[in-house]
# Entry
Amino acid sequence: MLGKFIVFEGIDGSGTSTQSELLKDFLLDNNINAVTTCEPSSGPIGNMIREGFKKRLSFVRDEKLFDEQMAYLFAADRHDHIHNEVDGIYYLNNKGITTISTRYFFSSLVYHVNNEEEYNFVKKLNEKFPLPDLTIYIDNPVEISLKRISLRAHRDAYENKEKLEKVKLNYKRVFEEYNKNLLIIDGSKSIDEIHNEIKKKVVHLYGI
# Structure
């Protein structure tokens, strides 16, 4: 049986990484082989993006060009993330392993877009990527996210109030237009409450 492809989305500080690990453990406890992954990925392009966010590599400074550059880099990383034959999503799914990714092309549509022209550009750039079996969006208040981000050792270029407010509005648009398997959860709930909602949806997805 093919593995599933599950994606977590949310503004920075939404708890997507925590919930992806909890879901992986839940699936493993139910004898479903699963791994967690993320974007940017751990591949060569993904690592370059991470080094750039840490300011160990230089990207363009102009905000518009920066978002455009990120859209191209993330799309290239995403292609490798899906298709590489070492630990790519297709490779793992074909071995019966469920992949749980924190972020996918939805993130490009919300983080790398400031107007309609850019939205159409990023949408076109990502239109050939496969849709997840399930997308989970943790709809987190910006203020809660900022409090969590303030505790991190390193913050990237997108982790500020103005950007997160734009991203949250973009998520609203993206998921209002999305008509596939989607679970939207109130991110102000407790970790356990969010996990329990996810489990209910996943139980239905797997029939367990």
